[in-house]
Amino acid sequence: MSHPPLHVEVRDLTLAFGPHVVQSDLRFGIRRGEIFVIMGDSGCGKSTLMRHMIGLNRPARGDVLYDGEPMWEGDEDARERLKDRFGVLYQNAALWSSMTLEENVSLPLAERKAMDADDARAVARLKLALVGLAGFEDHHPAEISGGMRKRAGLARAMALDPEILYFDEPSAGLDPLSSRRLDDLILELRDSSGTTIVLVTHELPSIFELGDNAVFLDAERKTMIAQGPPAEMKQSDEPKVRAFLERGRL
Amino acid sequence: MTVSTATTNVAKLEVSREAGVVRVRLSGRFTLDAGLPSADDVERALAEAPAGTRVVFEPSGLEAWDSALVGFLFAVAGHAAARGSAVDASALPEGARRLLELALAVPARVMAQEPKDDALTARVGTVALRAWRTASDALEFLGETAAAAWTLARGRTRFRRVDLMHAVESAGVGALGIVALINLLIGAVLAFVGAVQLQQFGAAIFVANLVGIAVTRELGPIMTGIVMAGRTGAAFAAVLGTMTVNEEVDALRTMGLRPVEFLVLPRVVATALMLPALVAYADLMGILGGTFVGVAVLDLGAVEYLRATQSSLELRHVAIGLVKSVAFGVVVALTGCYYGIRCSRSAAAVGEAATRAVVMGIVFVVIVNTVFTVLLHVAGL
Asked: Do A112 and B158 touch (CB under 8 A)?
């Protein structure tokens, strides 16, 4: 049986800050339309890996390929073009605080797609409505709740109709109901638009509910120690992975 | 051997050594308000005892305990572990025993640390390398800003006009009050100082010349530059630093928008535009301050004073002050934005960025002023 080509490939990636290695020799692939989970214990470098995958940090070694196109081998212009392919929801939503929600979503449309202001506003309203924030267009980020900020951040991440959406700890700081609503929204997005989703999380309900495939990073060995579907990883040879997924003791 | 220590008048510690056992008797109140008892006696007893000696706690006279007791037990357990001695805590109150077990459950993480070289050459080298990295980073930032300014000059504006307007308002109208106050007082002080000297020669009217030229050419621009470094430079560093901490700057990058174009350029343009306007206003305020002193202290007429100012003040003095102020504006805004955008990810780092922006902003204003003064002197202006 032939597999569809990889949408994102992490090839021999080593993440380091100066002499301090965070993770090394990471190798995994993400297929188009799947929900891929990056998990591991606190401080293992999950968010750091995401920052390298989205072009914010240059890896010490290795590369990240989007449809076979390397991110770090090419020049800055090529890298900027690759950025159009993905959107990012940051842990704290990272909405631009001086702008309204509508301006937050319409800015990338106006700048990257050169849309005129009215069209950009109309698309921004649609994106905000898709995440259940119709009527909040003129609110500033400080005027809405944490869960709403996350959804507004998602609307902004979706602004350019990206092929891939990155989520950094989407459930962090949310109550169980808001967290569940966000998970449902992520599933709905994947099912309706076929977007590839990369999820950085250690929330077990989200991992099992959403993840098609996953990779487990270990803080002590500073590399990945398991990969595959989360349900299968429960039977991993690695006691730490089993304990993590069973929320048990080593 | 028995060592008895009363750490306070309420907690008592008795350490005795027998064959294969160091016995620690605890009595009285081991509470935080009495201070943490020292584990030195137990450590000494362990050091004198043969290897493999056990430590046994006997809390028979213990009246009350809290974290002070557990802290003491933890310290003793550390000393015992270092000498390979076992600790018998079975007689301790159950709560204290469990807390001690909890504290010892996860072994302390041993961090591999590079040996620190304290030699003078190593320290000088470290400082030099850090300075070199900062200088090359600042140069890269300047290059990025220059490239963004070139994009702007070619009419491909990438920042939002509303951001420029906000920066204009903040760096312009918002600073009028403090600029007026400082320069009014500087003009008055200068007139006072000048009057004391000039009155001795019957030349009080020349105070107008002194104040007019000094304020328009040097003091107006430099005082306004310093005020702006403390006010606007710090504000830029704090805003951009907070945006960096909140990942808002990262969000711009991942959207393919360059932070230097979007955040730095409008602030630099606004400050460079507003500084000359503020300095013109500062010049007026400085002369007004001088006039007050001339009229109130030197008994000169207001019209007489202003005429003297007008006749002594050449346009070049005012023009030199205004040209310098553009450079001050650029320097203040660049310094504030640089420290803000290079801020690391913590609340403390934002405060540090604002402080550095102010200090370095003032330093750069004075340096730029000195360069101008030397160049103008050489040019005979």
From this structure: no
CA A131 to chain B, closest CA, distance in angstroms equals 19
Q: Per the domain annotation, does B121 fall within a domain?
A: no
CA angle (A58, A64, A68) in 5-degree steps:
145
pLDDT-derived band of residue A1, with 50, 70 and 90 as boundaries?
very low
Residue in A56, A84, A87 nearest the CB of B250: A56
Of the candidates B55, B65, B76, the residue with the CA atom closest to the CA atom of residue B34: B65
- Which positions of chain B have pLDDT values less than 50? 1, 8
Please provide residue B299's backbone torsions phi and psi, each rounded to the nearest 5 degrees: 60, 30
The DSSP output letter for B9 is S
The answer, for A107 touching chain B at a CB cutoff of 8 Å, is: yes
Residue A222 scores a pLDDT above 70:
yes
ipTM score: 0.83
pLDDT above 90 covers what percent of chain A? Answer: 56
Whether B166 and B100 map to the same domain: the answer is no
Same domain? For B148 and B86 the reply is no
What's the gap in Å between the CA of B128 and the closest CA on chain A? 18
Task: Choose from B140, B156, B254, B257 for mutation: most chain A CBs within 10 A.
Answer: B254
- Mean pLDDT (whole number) for A113-134: 88
B236, B298: one domain: yes
Is A97 close to B255, i.e. CB distance below 8 A?
Answer: no
Specify whether the CB–CB gap between B278 and B321 falls below 8 A. no
User: In this structure, is residue B124 part of a structural domain?
Assistant: no
A97 touches B at CB < 8 Å? yes
Hey, are the CB atoms on B253 and A56 less than 8 Å from each other? yes
| Averaged pLDDT score across all residues of chain A | 90
Can you state the percent helix, strand and coil of chain A, rounding each to 5? 40, 25, 35
- B168 domain-assigned: yes
Work out how many domains chain B is built from and give that number.
2
The CATH number that applies at residue B52 is 3.30.750.24
Q: Same structural domain for residues B186 and B240?
A: yes
CATH number attached to the domain at A6-85+162-246: 3.40.50.300
- Closest chain B C-alpha to A3 CA, distance in angstroms: 30
Helix, coil or strand: residue B320:
helix
pLDDT at B61: 85
Given a cut of 80, whether residue A111 has pLDDT beyond it is yes
Return residue ranges of chain A for CATH 3.40.50.300: 6-85+162-246
Question: What is this structure's pTM?
Answer: 0.78
Task: Work out the angle between the directed axes of helices B265-296 and B315-341 (0-180°, nearest 10).
Answer: 140
The pLDDT value given to residue B6: 52
Query: What are the chain A neighbours of B251 within 8 Å (beta carbons)?
Result: 88, 90, 94-96, 156
CA angle B155–B160–B161, rounded 5-degree value: 80
- Contact at CB, A90 and B250, closer than 8 angstroms: yes
Q: State how far the Cα of A180 lies from the Cα of A156, in Å rounded to an integer.
A: 20
Q: Which of A50, A53, A58, A98 to probe by mutation at the B interface, max B CB count within 10 Å?
A: A98
Residues of A in contact with B256 (CB under 8 A): 80, 83-84, 108, 111-112
Interface of B with A (CB under 8 A): 158, 160, 163, 166, 243, 246-248, 250-257
Cβ–Cβ gap A94/B248 under 8 Å: yes
Range of the domain at B74: 2-105
pLDDT at A80 over 70: yes
Average pLDDT of span A215-230 = 93
Strands of the sheet containing B11-18, edge to edge, are: B2-6, B11-18, B21-30, B54-65, B87-88
